[in-house]
């Protein structure tokens, strides 16, 4: 019984939907149906501007891909430069530290000698 009710309800809904949708497409007295048919015909007709737009779109997509490649290459260059700069700063810091230790050691040696001369 339930199956019969569900089937009858589904059939009723489908017939209602098709009865409502059919006049919109096939009714010549309905002005919205004519407008919808004209719109459908306009959309399906090839427009010469479409091919121009498609070519321009393809050209811009190619240019976009090239620019993305350039951006990727530039990002790699930036990373390399940052690494080299940090390496250079580390090297400078180590040289300055070594020089400071040597100057401190030499200064300490002179102070110890002067104290021993007293």
Describe the main β-sheet briefly: none
Task: Give the termini separation.
Answer: 122 Å
The total beta strand count reads 0
SSE-based structural type:
mainly alpha
Strand content: under 5%
Percent in helix: over 70%
Rg calc: 42 Å
Sum up the overall morphology in one term.
Answer: rod-shaped
Q: Average pLDDT across residues?
A: 77
Number of helices: 3
Low-confidence stretches: 17-25
Q: What is the string of SSEs from the N terminus onward?
A: HHH
Task: Give the SSE map.
Layout: H1 2-26, H2 31-44, H3 48-117
Helix pairs in contact: 1-2
Structure description:
The chain is mainly alpha-helical. The chain has a domain at 1-45. Helix content is 92%, strand content 0%. The protein has three helices and no strands. It has helices spanning 2-26, 31-44, 48-117. Helix 1 (2-26) crosses helix 2 (31-44). The longest helix has 70 residues, at 48-117. The chain is rod-shaped and about 115 Å long. The N and C termini lie far apart (122 Å).
Summarize the structure.
With 118 residues, this protein is mostly helical. The protein has helices at residues 2-26, 31-44, 48-117.
Keywords:
118 residues; rod-shaped
């Amino acid at each position: 019984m339930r199956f019969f009710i569900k089937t009858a309800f589904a059939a009723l809904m489908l017939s209602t939907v098709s009865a409502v949708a059919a006049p919109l497409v096939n009714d010549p007295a309905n002005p919205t149906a004519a407008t919808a048919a004209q719109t459908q015909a306009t959309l399906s007709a090839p427009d010469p501007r479409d091919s121009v737009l498609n070519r321009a779109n393809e050209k811009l997509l190619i240019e976009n891909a090239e620019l993305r490649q350039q951006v990727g290459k530039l990002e790699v260059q930036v990373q390399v430069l940052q690494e080299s700069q940090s390496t250079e700063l580390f090297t400078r810091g180590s040289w300055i530290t070594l020089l400071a230790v040597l100057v401190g050691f030499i200064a300490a040696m002179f102070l110890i000698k002067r104290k021993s001369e007293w």
